[in-house]
Design goal:
The structure is a single chain. With 435 residues, the chain is of the alpha/beta class. 43% of the residues lie in helices and 20% in strands. It has 15 helices and 13 strands. It is globular and about 85 Å long. One of its GO terms (cellular component) is cytoplasm. It is found in: Cytoplasm.
């Protein structure tokens, strides 16, 4: 189902079951809001709405009571809903019964997150980790779905019934595929450096947006990539829906990357897949940590994001800007606005209204060394690597051949100059005559 393109969009509805006695550290409404944000991250989906369903307990056969099941069925039919996303765990039996009763496709929270990860996985490792997590998920559902058949049969299990034979075959096929994937993953991880070719093909600085799933990253991404100040000199085609090339006011071209949103209470079997889908963050020259500053749990969310960045191995040497988003939801005298104004690494914005975006763009330019200088540099005839890089970077304004090599006229930032100098062959060591 994932990866639906530009055709008809599927109508989806999000349900958050609020079961009495479950951990109530976060409100059901906040969790539904996160579930809706996840649904909006699915391609080819139109979200028709969402609701919290309060339950004294989960019903084993249908999750919800029969009256609620009927009420929801009528609503889904009236609104022509084709996909129901349940923000919580759903057993295979519950899924089968509800799909049959409502005439819809149903995904639980883990299935939904897997769909998003599959759509966002860029690197070879990311794709493999998502496939592995999906197989692990399928295997647990397969086992649970068939246990009633295994229980029906007595004996020692030497003579399996048809259901048992099928489940064993399916299980073995999944296990074999998982072993194959793990072997491939081991090779990929060993040669990780070789799998960064995509980054090297785009020699422009990468700016990665990270943040919680409902922090407004995608709104900010769309606003920045659609802003006239950035798009006035679009040299490149769109790389894919989550990576765009933009030109900062000072003339510096950058790749803006919108990463998959961070998620609370991530199912454990999805942690490795989640980290692998964030692999592009490891290549970033600048990280924009987008925070929903109006959210009651903004501090806890920020700490979660920083913890995952540390675990990914993103060091303090990578430039960071904290983007405090949704300031349109704060009162004008909120103390946090004064705090943001005093800190260079914090920019307060509203991705919705555009407030603060010029300051953010200026701060991005400062962090990446957007100010450029025109210089003439001489390189030897053998410095093909440095010359090719300069042309790929788009900084060469002129070239002249001289007896000792080439004179390049370049317009570059301090950062580009440093990179160029690392590509030049070091001079041969001086030889000293021995006495």
């Amino acid at each position: 189902m994932g990866g639906a393109g530009g055709g008809r969009r599927q109508k989806a509805f999000v349900l958050h079951p609020d079961i009495r006695g479950n951990d109530a550290s976060r409100s059901a409404e906040a969790l539904l809001s996160e579930g809706l944000s996840l649904a909006l991250a699915l391609p080819g989906i139109e979200v028709a709405g969402g609701m919290v369903v309060r339950l004294p307990r989960a019903h084993p056969g249908m999750l919800f009571g029969s009256g609620k099941v009927q009420e929801l069925k009528e609503r889904f039919e009236a609104e022509e809903v084709e996909l129901v996303l349940i923000d919580g765990p759903v057993s295979p039996v519950q899924q089968r019964n509800l799909e049959k009763e409502w005439g819809v496709k149903l995904l639980d929270r883990t299935g939904l997150i897997l769909e998003i990860f599959a759509d966002r996985a860029r690197t070879r490792e990311g794709v493999l980790q998502v496939e592995l997590a999906a197989l692990s998920y399928q295997r647990t559902r397969l086992v649970r779905a068939w246990t009633h058949l295994e229980r029906q049969r007595g004996g020692l299990g030497f003579v399996g019934g048809p259901g048992e034979t099928q489940i064993e075959a399916d299980r073995r096929a999944i296990d074999e595929q998982m072993i194959r994937l793990r072997r491939q993953l081991e090779k990929v991880v060993k040669t990780r450096a070789l799998h960064r070719a995509a980054r090297r093909r785009t020699p422009y600085p990468i700016v990665a947006l990270v943040g919680y799933t409902n922090a407004g990253k995608s709104t900010l991404f769309n606003h920045l990539t659609g802003a006239e100040v950035l798009a006035k000199d679009m040299l490149f085609a769109t790389l894919d829906p989550t990576m765009r090339a933009v030109v900062l006011p000072g003339g510096l071209s950058v790749i803006l990357s919108d990463t998959v949103g961070f998620i609370s209470e991530l199912p454990t079997q999805l942690v490795a897949a989640f980290r692998a889908t964030l692999e592009e963050v490891l290549e970033a020259d600048l990280i924009l940590h987008v925070r929903d500053i109006a959210h009651p749990e903004t501090e806890a969310q920020a700490e979660d994001v920083e913890t995952i960045l540390r675990e990914l191995g993103v060091g303090k040497d990578v430039s960071r800007l904290e983007v405090w988003n949704k300031i349109d939801l704060l009162p004008p005298d909120d103390a946090r606005l004064n705090t943001a104004a005093r800190r260079d690494e914090v920019i307060a914005v509203s991705a919705l209204t555009g407030q603060g975006l010029p300051e953010l763009v200026a701060a991005m330019g400062r962090s990446l060394g957007d100010e450029r200088r025109v210089e003439v540099v001489e390189i030897g005839h053998g410095e093909g690597k440095a010359r090719a890089w300069a042309y790929a970077e788009g900084i060469v304004q002129g070239e002249e051949t001289v007896e000792t090599g080439l004179l390049l006229t370049v317009s570059w930032s301090a950062k580009q100059k440093r990179r160029f100098e690392t590509l030049l062959e070091p001079p041969p060591p001086e030889e000293f005559d021995e006495d």
